[in-house]
Fold this sequence. Notes:
Elements: H1 14-47, H2 49-97, H3 102-111, H4 119-125, H5 130-145, H6 149-158, H7 164-180, H8 184-197, H9 203-217, H10 221-234, H11 244-252
Amino acid sequence: MATYKKRGFKPKTKVEAQEFEEQESTTAEVFSSLDEGASRTEEWVSKNQNYILGIIGVVAVAVLGYLAYNQFVLKPKEANAANEMYYPQQYFDQALNSTTAKDSLFTLALEGAEGKYGFLDIIEEYSGTKAANLANYSAGMSYLNMNKYQEAIDYLEDFKSDDAILGALAKGGLGDAFMQLDQPSDALGYYEAAFKHSDNEYTTPKFLYKAGVTALEMGNKTKALEYFQRIKDEFSGSQAATSIDAFIGIAKTGA
């Protein structure tokens, strides 16, 4: 049985001497193997040095290029796009608050005027920016208000946002557009997505109500009752709850 050998150990028997020699031989082989491995590694690195440096160079250039793109291309593009949004957004806000000439104001918001970009120009010229994404929402809502429902769908579907209000309103707008195109099943799906997008006092009861009414029209009174009851239980102070008891009564009939 092999034992731990202290420094300066001298074997006292032939067996110990043999074990000692075997251990020394094994240690020498290990170090020899490590030396050979290191030599092969150094040889490989030496032969492939240009390749390795090339890979490092490519990675460095890619990283520097990405940083430069963000700093000198993307950031200025974002800033310019945000500035361009100011002009059409004014017309969009005016159209929402106007009782006359709505279509004309929405058209100015969409197409621009006097050399200024509209939402459609921003979407095309500044694709990939936050402003272009927001322009998709505004363009979709503009078309929705102009009763151009397919165009509204096209742009609202391109809008992506985790914002509690805008994200829900965009999905609800898609529901409204599909409802006007007499596609209640699609409309219901978007209304449900809208109230599930976030839980708040404004959009949640609004789209629960629209989902309930749509489900009722489709003959699904069980689902309608579920949505109306939730408005009554959770959002009793909302506008949607004003006449909710009547809708609950209708939904309960035969539900």
